Amino acid sequence: MRLTEPSPPAVVEGAVVEELRRIQDQRLAALVDADADVLERLHAPGFELVTPTGDVLSRDSYLDDVIAGVWDFTTFEATGPVDVRVRGDSAQVRHRSSTTITIADTGTFGTPTLSTVLYEMHDGSWVAVREHTAPLGDLEPETPDPGIP
User: Fold this and answer.
1) Mean pLDDT for the chain?
2) Bridge-partner residues for 96, per DSSP?
3) Is 34 left (phi over 0), alpha (psi -120 to 50) or beta?
């Protein structure tokens, strides 16, 4: 006896997949540019980020720090295939990235990362609702902040 119907397989090709790849590229570029309008449009109100150090940040905390320059991304771009899986009104986007970020009072970090972003369809638009970015290398600052002993 089957209790539930099996879920349809995730879609991994097609127009929606390409749209999500473009949106992810826009989101990464907006992080580098600290573009408040694009960032606010592409992140759901309940967005959460799990940072490479395991901290969980709310949308407001994360975007406020990026827009204010506390988190200053110099580079954040996909380096290789962007894997997208869509199931209904949800999608998972995963890729390796080249990431360089200066964090105020901490230093500059440059390490490859692996990002997994969950998108959901909200009012006819895809928005990021959760992200987990993991380092693929050393998290020691390339350039420590000179004000930190």
Assistant:
1) 89
2) 114
3) left
> Quick check: 141 and 107 in contact, CB under 8 A?
yes
Cβ atoms of 85 and 37 within 8 Å: the answer is no
Query: Which amino acid is located at 135 in the chain?
Result: P
Whole-angstrom Cα distance, residue 112 to residue 137?
Answer: 6
What is the total residue count of the chain?
A: 149
| Cβ count within 10 A of residue 123 | 5
Question: What is the spatial distance between Cα 93 and Cα 112, in angstroms, rounded to a whole number?
Answer: 17
Mean local confidence (pLDDT), 87-95? 96
Residue that the structure tokens 């309008």 belong to: 37
Instruction: State the Cα–Cα distance between residues 42 and 64, nearest whole angstrom.
Output: 14
Residue at 43: amino acid letter: H
Q: Which of 57, 143, 55, 58 is closest to 104 using CA atoms?
A: 143
For residue range 130-144, list pLDDT tens digits in order. 999 998 877 666 665
- pLDDT per residue over 25-47, tens digit each? 999 999 999 999 999 999 999 99
8 A C-beta contact, residue 28 and residue 39: no
Question: Does 11 have pLDDT greater than 70?
Answer: no
Residue 18 near residue 24, CB atoms below 8 Å: no
